[in-house]
């Protein structure tokens, strides 16, 4: 009796255990990297944990502060000193040599403000002290301040630093390019998907093969192919000149046009495939019925066919848009200086300036925008559904 | 029997990480023809003499890889060729082994600009202007020409970086070469450089890989481009209609360094004997048109080759790149540069 009773519990427990594994994998693959990116954008231990004595020193006692800085710098090994110098130099030019020079001689400098200034007169400038005290905490918002262009002034008010809105501008540009690419992709992929779904078997197979081959080809290869096609003495320009359409080769690459063409091509399969799936589920009989009831071909398409394909358009468009937001190599190779997207700057911070905090903060910005857009999409979907029900 | 086979397979899979640990001597350099020439001049003689098996990989600049190696304790490179600025930055952060110049053979013949705390300067590189000889009737010959859109219309290729480009803007604006870094150290000097860059901003196209300027000039994608002398000269030797302008070019130094805690530290330090040897450097320069850092190597290079190198007379009217200036000012100027590009 009790055995039979415990069985459902047992199977529930087994199911729980079985679910535990995918949950753990999910956490490991998705949540952990996201968490580490977010913590990387805020974390400041490299600076915060090095200025322990300084953080404890009284702010209005210059000699005590000088002594504390010397003690902290003297306690750092070469690697820590180099790291601290690099990070502080990101805030102010010249901080690097100041920290390195002072750090190497920290044990011999008299531990007072006078001694420090005598060693290097830059220590007399309040700027340097302000930057240390601002950046010596365990958590720092300085990366987000740079990303947003917002700054806290001395009085504690948020101000927008003029000309510092660089990453907001790049974010805006990234969104604009992604929207442009999404619209272009949808415009091209709709008729293609329609041809596959409604065309003869042979047409469908041919088009699908072409789409899949392009889908399976490396993004880098497809991008470079566009460089070869679009460049000044490339195939397309030569053809245009030969046909007499233009007299001189025209600029087709290293501008927005080149970036859009290449990105659209790379992303087309992501829109075509979901659209085909949706279009194939719509019975042809519906259109026939609509025609037999007196609707013309255009009305049949607009009122019977098109509304039913919207689900595919939304999935395809959404996928393309989200993928486009993170594009890096394609606009880097085919766009001009003003067509570089946020990912380009993230890569620059990771590889070249070693400012992983900034790279992480920019990644978080991109993530937030995506989340915001998904929420917005859901909201619109819900509102539309409500209206439909009301009708 | 079957069980045994499975057991052996499993054991060998488990043993694989250990096999990777006992790896071969690994050299990271810039790749392409550059690395091919280094292989012929340095790697092969070194590996043969020492009975070592060497593995090569590509390094693309920056400190990211070295920092990761240091943080994880998994040092996968034993020798790396880097720009002198990056090497100094890495040295300050303890990512590289220090060089004991006292014990280094040939040290006395190495030019002083090539001696660093953690790195051995090995190659002198020219960073100047290249052009397609078929594009213009009159050849460009100065940075003033580079900035002259009327005389030389068309796109300009350069890197998306303030380094060297701010110097070029100042030279084009009439600053004498020995004053460039003095002027650039002042806020007015920086403003002046950016104002000059404004005049060609709409025509700029940024290159990333060293091969792009050559491809772009040949394809007509840009009219003039900055680039490494080696790329233009190599293409020219292959019969391409390209020319490199020696006047007012900027030369910097590429260095060899040993990542901190490399398991092959002793062998890596012995590599410098091969890299600093005048005959080997002359051989390298005959294969790849970059200059030697061993002053004695110049005498071993035929005059015809010397004409193609950033060495001797070609450097008579040139600017020596200041690593010290850029180490201090890069962050602030890069930020301003990025802002300038976006606006």
TrEMBL record, chain A:
Transmembrane segments: 13-40, 175-197, 203-221, 257-276, 313-334, 354-380
Any Gene Ontology biological process: transmembrane transport
Gene3D superfamilies the UniProt entry points to: MetI-like (1.10.3720.10)
One matching Pfam family: BPD_transp_1
Annotated membrane topology: Multi-pass membrane protein
ABC transmembrane type-1 domain: residues covered: 171-377
Keyword Nucleotide-binding annotated: no
Gene Ontology CC terms, in alphabetical order: plasma membrane
Localization (cell): Cell membrane
Keywords, comma-separated and alphabetical: Cell membrane, Membrane, Transmembrane, Transmembrane helix, Transport
Protein family membership: Belongs to the binding-protein-dependent transport system permease family. CysTW subfamily.
Entry protein name: Putative spermidine/putrescine transport system permease protein
Protein source organism: Mycoplana dimorpha
UniProtKB/TrEMBL annotation, chain B:
Keywords: Periplasm, Signal
Pfam families named in the record: SBP_bac_8 (PF13416)
Segments forming a coiled coil: none
Residues annotated as signal peptide: 1-22
InterPro entries reported in the protein's UniProt record: SBP (IPR006059)
Keyword Ribosomal protein found: no
Transmembrane segments: none
This protein's record includes keyword Signal: yes
Name of the molecule in the record: Putative spermidine/putrescine transport system substrate-binding protein
Organism for this UniProt entry: Mycoplana dimorpha
